[in-house]
Amino acid sequence: MTLAIVPSETSPVPLSDLVARDAREFGVYARTGGWAFGLMVARSVRPGGQGADETPKVSAKEFAELAGCSPERVMRYYKAWDKAADDGLVPHFEALSPGQEVELPDADVWLGYYVSRNSATSERGTAIAEAAEAEGIRPTKALEVAENPTALRAAILADPSTARAARSALLDRLKEDPELQAELARDVVRTDDLKKAVATESRAADRIGYVRQIAESGQVRTPAGQTIDAPVDLRQEAERHLSLLDELEEDEDTGEWATEAYDTMKSLVVEVVEADPELRVQERRTKFYSSLQKATKVFEELTFDDAQDFYEDDMVQRLEELQNAIATCITSLRGARGIHPEG
User: Which branch of life, at top level (predicted)?
Assistant: First the structure.
């Protein structure tokens, strides 16, 4: 692997040997990438188990001292070459001697073997590498991002598409990380804008659920709380609105559409109830019982054990007014059934 440099005939000065050497080395690296450096390590660093008296090669520590770098960095190249040798891409260490040249794989292939970060050997690094492979990307890319969260933050803040990718990944992780769920929930409730946004989306989801319930189950809850079978035309209208909602793009605001669909269905349900005399009576009866139960519960929760501590005249007055209202209500109900009070 040599690069011939021919001086131009019109060149006023001869080509420097130093420039020619740089050009040759640049050409080698441009074609082979990290393999060129991997070869330097593979042919100069003796493999484990081989003594210094058996080979002119040196230890990784000695090689690192000569290179002016760390032994760990040398070993990353060593391990990358070892993996590639096991896959048959390059010769094993034992087959190489200092200064020996061999045909090297393409530069892009190197990235599949070389891990430039110590974190890749940790449990965390292994998990990141496996996730990267599952997503079809090089582990080195994912490890680089993981080790530079500030860069990730900058990309999210500056680029909407990166922010959307981060949101999607975060949602996937939330499914399996209860602790992160709790932390995010706390962040939401502590941030007014997020809290309002969640409330708005929740309301929209509830309204869409109301429409979906009618369309899919064929049943509907009336304003008073009855569950009735939805007429065919009501169900068809619900299906129409649901179809419009399902066709919305992901980035479109569903709130307005959900409100329109919900209000329309609510109005139609009221019309269905009012159009059926029997259903109308049942609706009013249900509403009355519901209000009566609420009023009864509230009254039952009143306690008078220590009334002497907070007694005021207007309390008795209000209870007397309530008593009169209840008596009037009872009289009306008895009158409706033809039952007259005793006396």
Answer: Bacteria
The 8-class DSSP code of residue 306 comes to T
- How far apart CA 160 and CA 37 sit, in angstroms, is 39
Q: Which tokens sit at 104?
A: 């090297």
User: Taking the model in full, what pTM does it have?
Assistant: 0.47
The count of C-alpha atoms lying within 13 angstroms of the C-alpha of 339, restricted to the half-sphere facing its C-beta, is: 7
Does residue 343 or residue 305 have the better pLDDT?
305
- The answer on pLDDT for 113 being more than 90 is no
262: its two tokens: 């919900």
* Alpha helices by DSSP H, the chain: 17-32, 35-44, 60-67, 71-86, 107-110, 123-135, 139-146, 149-158, 160-174, 178-190, 192-217, 232-246, 255-275, 277-300, 313-336
The label of the residue with tokens 């042919």 reads: 43
Q: Any idea which residue has 């499914």 for tokens?
A: 175
Residue 341, classified by CB atoms within 10 Å of its CB into exposed (0-12), middle (13-18) or buried (19+), is: exposed
> Which is nearest to 37 in space by CA: 13, 4, 9, 69?
69
CA distance 97 to 115: 25
Q: How confident is the model at residue 197 (pLDDT cuts 50, 70, 90)?
A: confident
Between 226 and 47, name the one with better pLDDT: 226
% of the chain exceeding 70 in pLDDT: 89
Most distant CA atoms of the chain, gap in Å: 133
Least confident of 112-116, 158-162, 243-247: 112-116
- Strands 219-221, 227-229: pairing kind: antiparallel
